[in-house]
Amino acid sequence: MIEIKEDSVIVSTGFKNQYDLPFLWLRDNCQCDKCRILETQEKQFLLHTVPVDISPKHVEVKDENLLVIWPDDHESLIPLSKIKQSGVARYPERKKWIGNFVPEKYDWSKFLDDSDVSTDALRTFISFGAIILTNAPKESNSLELLSKRLGPIHETLFERIHNVSITGHVYNVAHTSKELPPHNDFASYKSQPSIQALHMLENECEGGNSIIVDGLEVIEDLRLENPGFFNTLSEFNVPFRQFDENNETYAEAPLIKCSSDGSIESFRFSNQLMQMIDPTRNGLKEFYKAYHDVSARVHQDKYRSTFRLDGGEVLIVASFRVLHAREEFIPNGKRHLQDAYFVYDNALNNSLL
Ligand SMILES: [Fe+2]
Ligand SMILES: [Zn+2]
């Protein structure tokens, strides 16, 4: 069924679908060999080379294709299956945590060597924002090997692979035995690392359980229960800084960032790196009330998952979404953690392989 309107074609297909296809969309999506580069499927047709009010001479459905004939007799054949396919979600759906969430565990070697396992693991990772790899080597810099599945390491101005122990280089609270409240790393970067892998090499200390918090759920609940606070935290820029004797990182950004469709893109949260906000700024009081509310939520038990990360385990989190934390530990044994960052887009795309 086809109906030609003023600037679009309405096509009703057999499968309960009705499409309202603008003329410009139809012309832009011509699949012919003149409009596409045959070898790469890239588009070479340039939209501005036809008039903005272009209108087809003739439209029909022919053998499950939409055939469009244009005033210059150019013929476009667009498979209906391709139109339908364009509306199918490509990536696994993001899922919020329920109850006592514990990240799914995968064997380190299988994750690296078996592509079915890695695809399954990456899809779980995309859905929930956290997985654990078990039976990992207890050797330094093993995180380098994860590049095979997660893409290249995302370096910052600090070390490529950071050592977290109380005997090394102390430049933040993680390098002490103190409790570490929920945060994501490098809020002091405008574009924060989007994946963090935490590799426990040795954990002989008492205490020090790992904690992760689903920031996505925290923020979704905030939006439902207090949209005013949500808006404030999406708009108010907050300064963050991390530094040592050789490096300086500083960024100002809102705690919540949304995509154009309104979905939450990232949650930036680091009590330890937050800097003094200029008190002459407009909206400071409103910000602090909203910040108090979201901080209380971040510390609520219902959003957190607590578990012990043993030597030979790697926790991988989608850090734009999942915050990590650690209980205080007693320094009565060896405890050595290494961490490194990766790029979420690379893991996302590898989950499609
Ligand atoms: Fe951290
Ligand atoms: Zn064409």
Tally of individual domains:
2
- Strand order of the main beta sheet, please? 7-8-19-11-22-9
For this structure, the CATH topology of the largest domain is: Double-stranded beta-helix
DSSP helical segment count: 9
- Low-pLDDT parts are none
Report on this model:
- The protein is an alpha+beta fold.
- It has 2 domains: 84 residues, NE0471 N-terminal domain-like (2-Layer Sandwich), CATH 3.30.2020; 247 residues, 4-Layer Sandwich (Double-stranded beta-helix).
- It contains 9 helices and 22 strands.
- A 6-stranded mixed β-sheet has the order 7-8-19-11-22-9. The protein has a 4-stranded antiparallel β-sheet with strand order 10-20-13-18.
- Helix 6 packs across helix 7 and helix 7 crosses helix 8.
- The longest helix is centred in the last third of the chain and has 15 residues.
- The mean pLDDT is 95.
- Bound molecules: fe (ii) ion and zinc ion.
- Fe (ii) ion (FE2) binds next to loops.
